[in-house]
Amino acid sequence: HAELIDVGKKPGNPYPYAQDEINNLLVDRGGKLPIVVRLKGGDPFVFGRGGEELAALKAAGIKAEVVPGISSAIAAPAYAGIPVTHRPIATSFTVVTGHRMQGEPEINWDALAQLGGTIVVMMGVTERALIAGRLIDAGLSRITPVAAITWGTHDHQQVSRTTLQHLGVLELNPPATIVIGSVAGLDLEWFTSD
């Protein structure tokens, strides 16, 4: 008997809700109904805009609870058999967006290249050539392993492997999680094995 409102921002969805509309829906329904659930894939605070939604609810005086999830930044690589950290080749990982809104600060690709470890790029399919170029210009080797996991954790998950120099020409459609670094060269695949 629940009212279901699909506000998902799916690739190809011709009429996605703007974030302000989603916030308003949450505030409206949260002020009228005893229970409202905003179900999100992954973790609501990792590129999920959960912070914006929670801020809108708090500003309206509506109590809310957040249930953390597993971000696709680590779930998709895990399902592809790629640990984001792995002794002794990667002792850290950085998650970064490949899609910025106008007015958001520039991503410091130079710092990311110098940091070492694994770089996980979310929402980076359309900017993958630019990202690869910036990281190469910042000093990462052209032959740095890259894995792109499309539809991670789904039955139709696909893993495409390449190097940083070829990332820009890799045929790739969203949604994809892009893993850059030595761990992307590991093939511990288990999910789609027969």
Detail the poorly predicted runs.
none
Q: Compute the number of strand runs.
A: 5
Outline: elongated
Indicate the percent of residues in helices: 25-40%
**Main structural class:** alpha+beta
What's the arrangement of strands in the largest beta sheet?
1-2-5-3-4
Order of helices and strands: HHHEHEHEEE
Mean pLDDT: 91
Beta-strand content estimate: 5-15%
Q: What's the tally of helices?
A: 5
- What gap, in angstroms, lies between the N and C termini? 40 Å
What is the radius of gyration? 18 Å
> Largest sheet, if any?
5 strands, mixed
Layout of helices and strands:
Elements: H1 19-32, H2 50-59, H3 72-79, E1 93-97, H4 109-115, E2 118-122, H5 128-137, E3 145-150, E4 158-163, E5 176-180
Parallel strand pairs: 1-2
Antiparallel strand pairs: 2-5, 3-4, 3-5
Helix pairs in contact: 1-2, 4-5
Can you put this structure into words, describing what you see?
With about 190 residues, this protein is an alpha+beta fold. It contains five helices and five strands; from the N terminus they run αααβαβαβββ. It has helices at about 20-30, 50-60, 70-80, 110-115, 130-135, and strands spanning about 95, 120, 145-150, 160-165, 175-180. Strands 1-2-5-3-4 form a five-stranded mixed β-sheet, with helices on one face. Helix 1 (about 20-30) crosses helix 2 (about 50-60) and helix 4 (about 110-115) packs across helix 5. It is elongated and about 55 Å long. The termini are far apart. The mean pLDDT is about 90.
